Model the fold of this input.
Amino acid sequence: MSIASKYDPASAEAKWYAYWMEHKFFSSKIDPEKEPYTIVIPPPNVTGVLHMGHMLNNTIQDVLIRRARMQGKNACWVPGTDHASIATEAKVVNMLKEKGIDKKDLCREDFLKYAWEWKEKYGGIILEQLKKLGASCDWDRTAFTMDPGLSDAVISVFVDLYRKGKIYRGIRMVNWDPKGQTALSDDEVIMKEVASKLYYIKYKIEGTEDQFLTIATTRPETIMADSAICINPNDPRFTHLKGKKAIIPLINRTVPIIEDEYVDMEFGTGCLKVTPAHDINDYELGVKHKLEVIDILNDNGTLNEKAQILVGEDRFVARKKIGKLLEEVGQLEKIEEYKSNVGHSERTDAVVEPKLSLQWFLEMKEITKPALKAVMEDDIQLHPPKFKNMYRAWMENVRDWCISRQLWWGHRIPAYYLPNGEFVVAKTAEEALELANSQFNTQYSLADLRQDEDVLDTWFSSWLWPISVFDTDVFTTGQPNEELKYYYPTNDLVTAPEILFFWVARMIIAGYEYMDELPFKNVYLTGIVRDKLGRKMSKSLGNSPDPLDLIAQYGADGVRTGMLFSSPAGNDLPFDEKLVEQGRNFANKIWNAFRLVKGWEVDSSLDGSANAASMEWFKNRFNQALGEINEHFEKFRISDALMTTYKLVWDDFCSWYLEMIKPGYQQPIDQKTYDQTIQYFEGILKLLHPFMPFLSEEIWHQIKERSVEESLIISSWPEAKGFDNTIIEEAAQIFEVVSQVRNLRASKGMSPKEALDLTVNTKNKDLYQGFETVLTKLANLSSLSFGEKVENAMSFVVKADECFIPMGDSINIEEEKASIEKEIEYTKGFLASVMKKLSNERFVSGAPAQVVEMEKKKQADAEAKIKALEESLAKLG
Done:
């Protein structure tokens, strides 16, 4: 088989993905003989297209699922999409605008027809893009949160929780998105620091001619909604105002001056305007002091008739106009620049308004307790564990979840209102009618029932995801089907920290509520992909490359490895295109190594004993690396697992092993060495496959012709075996000698082809004699001898061994002394850094035993090297 001079990612990716799909390698069915390994995808919004965060998240999931498949587990990765009520409705509204259609002119049914058309046209784009990345999802299981079965599950859960008394309807202060015109939960509000202004407004005291009270506010447009002025009862500046009233500027309405220790005497002017309808803290004050609630804002953020002035103006336009009006009547004392934290809608980025609204809520205090316990006691492990404190803080201070949204796209709330002013909750209108007539002893018909107009928060469906993708009936029957029994709980969840509460915590809550069991065992929290300036990558900033363009340019394997090179769990990824370039270069390095090996001519009559030490070394080094890689995977150090693999392949296999056993120019290689090298290469391809599935499968089949059943994707993960650390350390010492000889040649301008004599002062001749063939070949030596001193020679020290290369009369004693002194200084600095670690009690007691031992060995080696260098220096006089 002829091998292409260059690896072509595009053709390999198209070929092997189609091959895997054709042979159903991603498919998973119940198999009692196999241990299940299950991952559910964090369902991307149907509005979404692939971005860098998706790339990172799904690469990690694919790495885990491919390795599990190779470990012989029944790997099941369930894909799907989320209906994303707010985002999708906004997309559909914009689409309709382009067609000249206003949503207000449509009935619900007609709007939903357009929404479903949009979903069918655009909703699957992101899943198709994930295939380009190599995602090995079981595509036959693709789910959508508004599929009939999943929708039925959501409605069943609402009815169940309502009947348990955990869901209620009431007027509460909620977060209101004026752009999406819907309520939001607390978690859907993103706080941003924005530059704003502090307006100092003068309120006239009733019954006086020239007495004013100055109040500082960032929201002058809400003064028309003021119900009181509040002072701190302990503030001596305002004692004379107790029991009096103030007059709201511009509208001349009087409000009482009340007292409450809630007021911060140090902020602003030390007194506060109380606007119960437009601030959560003011609302609480209003309840306490029984104040009137005056809502002056329409749902779209414009001022309504209750404002009395500027009716119909947008709130931010009104803010500027109010400032000017106050200035005109002499009641604006001053304006200061001010930084404040302002809540923004996570979906529309609109500034959120606190708003009193009649909504549906899920009572969270009791239902969250098992979910908090599970994470705190490590039944569910967060990786990295630093997120446990954040999780605990949220769960211990959780507020009731506002689950209703004022939208049409989504799961409609199954509450039915009756002519008598009551309502009933039931899965269907027919069930609601039967319940209503029974409960209220009436004879209503279906026409008398009016279903709630609102839909449920999107997260109210995705919190059921690990359960509902396998069984949609369990919420009704209470009896899990065979699939759910087999695949649940899932194993690992890979997601972003920003949805730890939106989604992860709620899935845990639902898992304990409906399965009495955790939904997954591990949560791997990825970092945020940022640009070189530390900014989060986003389309709006224009700082994010198109992932598909990156794949086209560097290959999917290059992009996958590039994303993982510097992405430890929970830490942000400072993305640089050089990372994916490094990934592509890695793929090319592997391809070229394959071409090199396959290009050798094999002579079965040759004796391969000269390569025995090299083969023995790489066997042990491979097993050592495999143990490290397995440990990294077990501890969810995916980036570290890749880097260990990278070093094994690039440094140990390509840079050392292949050079050690490579035959001379146009010379054949012996059969034993060749066969062993191919075997090593196959082991490497297995380690590479989770990270670089396309390249590894391509080379796997080019090494030799293989059947479908012998494909790499379903081959076995290498078996962990013991290793001899001595031979690994001895080889490392030989490699250091080779490197020093090469450096010496380069520094002296000597040709690599010029053979040199090497004399070593060592107590371990066996080490050098065992690797004599390797040392002679790689360092290009004409001879290897042993002795204590060589006249007119350059020297260097490796560990405690002094090495000499005769230089005739060309040696400069002063230069040699300076070089040795520099090496001593460097080694002492290295020793100091090691000693600093070893003197750190926390490091010694907390680090794994082998890590501490490694540091102690570094200490011993450095001390021996310093001693040998100092002896070399003394010999030079």
User: Anything to note?
Assistant: The first strand starts at residue 36 and ends at 40. The mean pLDDT is 92. The two ends are 63 Å apart (CA to CA).
